[in-house]
């Protein structure tokens, strides 16, 4: 059932927590240039990951349209509109040796208070919009299944997102649990995942990790540590 395992890909949800916004200046062009370089340096790539990781077979397909409405609408299109964001970038979706899926986003803000405020705003919206996000997760799985030609195997999907806990990395870490129960004619399958927000000074890193079956805390922490280390190094490169 490797094809069903691929349904665990959840790259659409990278849009949910990415704290993006207008291109405000912090020290002018020099800061913007440094911020863009910091984003480039901090985003996780295949070179950062252990052997066995590859580019995901499911990427843009599930990014089509979150269709969040009302107060949740700012979370569409990678959260554009959050104040104070200077530069941001996404990793390519990647697949691990156990068919786990990973994608991450890094953003640089004008200063630490702006990054703190963006994290608080994103946190509030995710919690307020949990039902809509659950539906978006369900649609992402349906789109991925259809693109892979296995959508006729799915009878029903029940998806949700809720606050979670995680060890602290950087200056602060927020976590959200992703869960999707997939019913097929043969059996039920559980997709489990995490959305992590790690902030280091004016930088935020958002990591989405999902797998068919149970989460591996050791793997999660290893990936979070990699991102946190890159954020810390990138933060040091920014001008005062």
Structure description:
There is one protein chain. The chain is an alpha+beta fold and 240 residues long. It has one domain: Protein Transport Mog1p, Chain A (3-Layer(aba) Sandwich), CATH 3.40.1000. The chain contains six helices and eight strands. A hairpin with a 4-residue loop joins strand 6 (172-183) and strand 7 (188-200). Helix 3 runs antiparallel to helix 6 (217-236). The radius of gyration is 17 Å and the shape is globular.
What is the H/E string? HHHEEEEHHEEEEH
pLDDT below 50 for ≥5 consecutive residues: which ranges? 1-26
What's the number of extended β-strand segments? 8
Tally of separate domains? 1
CATH class label: Alpha Beta
Q: Assign an overall shape.
A: globular
Main sheet, how many strands, which sense, barrel? 8 strands, antiparallel
Distance between the termini: 52 Å
Q: Report the sheet-strand fraction.
A: 25-35%
CATH 2nd-level architecture: 3-Layer(aba) Sandwich
């Amino acid at each position: 059932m490797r094809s069903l395992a691929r349904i665990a890909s959840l790259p659409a949800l990278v849009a949910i927590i990415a704290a993006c916004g207008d291109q405000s200046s912090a020290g002018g062009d020099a800061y913007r240039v440094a911020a863009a370089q910091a984003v480039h340096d901090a985003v996780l790539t295949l070179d950062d990951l252990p052997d066995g990781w590859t580019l995901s077979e499911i990427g843009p397909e599930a990014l089509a349209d979150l269709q969040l409405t009302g107060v949740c609408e700012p979370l569409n299109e990678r959260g554009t509109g959050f104040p104070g964001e200077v530069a941001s970038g996404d990793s390519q979706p990647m697949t691990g040796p156990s068919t786990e899926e990973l994608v991450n986003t890094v953003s640089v803000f004008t200063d630490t208070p702006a990054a703190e405020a963006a994290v608080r705003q994103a946190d509030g919206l995710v919690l307020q919009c949990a039902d809509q996000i659950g539906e978006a997760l369900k649609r992402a799985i349906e789109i991925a299944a259809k693109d892979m030609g296995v959508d006729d195997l799915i009878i029903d999907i029940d998806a949700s997102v809720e606050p979670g806990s995680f060890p602290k990395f950087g200056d602060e870490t927020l976590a959200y649990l992703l869960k999707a129960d997939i019913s097929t004619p043969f059996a039920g399958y559980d997709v489990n995942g995490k959305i992590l927000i790690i902030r280091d000074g004016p930088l935020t890193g958002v990591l989405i990790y999902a797998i068919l079956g149970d989460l591996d805390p050791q793997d999660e922490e290893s990936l979070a540590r990699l991102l946190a280390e890159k954020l810390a190094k990138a933060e040091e490169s920014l001008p005062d």
